[in-house]
């Protein structure tokens, strides 16, 4: 066993394997069915099921040999997560990414034609134009986070938002042409994330992806940024994109489970 494996309590993993055996397609299961779906032997499953019954997380279905989850399962973390809102849920995830994987990690929402940063973790960015605190704004047209959110809008809505904004060149790489921006949004939607290399601020590299509600509509986005001297763009994307998508997927699931955005 490796050092990490020595710290793992395998019986806890088996308990969650039993709980996850139940889903919308299998709301009631026998012990044998649970064992098969959890990948456990029947004896272990028998003991775990009856332990969970005693704790109130599983109940016997009357007049059958089947079991079901109880509503107590909903209480596992739900109260804390639902009350935290998206900001509270995002904050610890952003802190895990800075400074090891990025110089800044942000949660932002679209307000008209602007991105508003509502949660931000960053190191000293050294330049005032790279310092984005919660409450600060930037034009969505020139922001990877803005592109990541607008790419999931209806194209006519996105075009209207972009057309309503004054679009100035923030660097020699900033896109301001409306048709080019719409082509960019189509590319972002196709690959699932946005990339900016000095378009919003010279020397700043950013990747961003959306957080989607239960209807698949974008409600916010997460971005990770590094200063250009930290490394090449391709290396940054390769190393940090899986972490970005893991974060946005986790927050998407949290929003759909709790229904809380603010």
What's the helix and strand layout?
Blueprint (H helix, E strand, L loop, with lengths): L2 H4 L3 H12 L7 E2 H8 L3 H14 L2 E3 L5 E4 L8 H18 L8 E8 L2 E9 L14 E3 L4 H7 L4 H10 L13 H14 L2 E4 L6 E9 L5 E10 L5 H26 L4
Antiparallel strand pairs: 1-3, 2-3, 4-5, 4-9, 5-6, 7-8, 8-9
Helix pairs in contact: 2-3, 3-4, 5-9
Give an overview of the whole structure:
The chain is α+β, with helices and mostly antiparallel strands and 262 residues long. The chain folds into 2 domains: 73 residues, Winged helix-like DNA-binding domain superfamily/Winged helix DNA-binding domain (Arc Repressor Mutant, subunit A, Orthogonal Bundle), CATH 1.10.10.10; 181 residues, GAF domain (Beta-Lactamase), CATH 3.30.450. The protein is built from 9 helices and 9 strands. A 6-stranded antiparallel β-sheet has the order 6-5-4-9-8-7, sandwiched between helices. A 3-stranded antiparallel β-sheet has the order 1-3-2. α2 crosses α3, α3 packs across α4 and α5 packs antiparallel against α9. The chain is elongated, with a radius of gyration of 23 Å. It starts with a helix and ends with a helix.
> How big a fraction of the residues is strand?
15-25%
List segments where confidence is low: pLDDT < 50 over at least 5 consecutive residues.
Answer: none
Strand line-up in the sheet with most strands: 6-5-4-9-8-7
Q: How many E-type strands?
A: 9
Inertia-based shape: elongated
The major sheet is characterized as:
6 strands, antiparallel
Q: What would CATH call the architecture of the largest domain?
A: 2-Layer Sandwich
What structural class results from the helix and strand content? alpha+beta
Instruction: Report the radius of gyration as a whole number of Å.
Output: 23 Å
State the share of residues found in helices, binned by percent: 40-55%
CATH topology of the largest domain: Beta-Lactamase
